[in-house]
Amino acid sequence: MLNHMLIFNEEQLRDFMKQYFEYYNNERCHLAVGRDSPNGREIRNKPFKSARIISSPRIGGLHHMYKWNKAA
Fold this sequence. Notes:
Blueprint: H1 10-26, E1 53-58, E2 63-68
Antiparallel strand pairs: 1-2
C-alpha cells in the first residue's frame, strides 16, 4: 500500500495503516480461508433482477468494496 501513497506525516500514516488493517481483516478475500476474510464477511446475493453494483472506495481509493444497491 505504501508504494502507492504519498505520506506527509505520522498521523496520516497511522490513519492509512488503520484503514488498511480494517480492509485486510474485514473485507479482502483470502484464498487461505476459502475466499472469505479473516473476520468473516456477509454473503450478499443479488437482491432482485434489476439491482446494480455500487463501488465504495477504501484507503483513499486504492481499493474498493462492492455491494448491491437497494434501489430498483
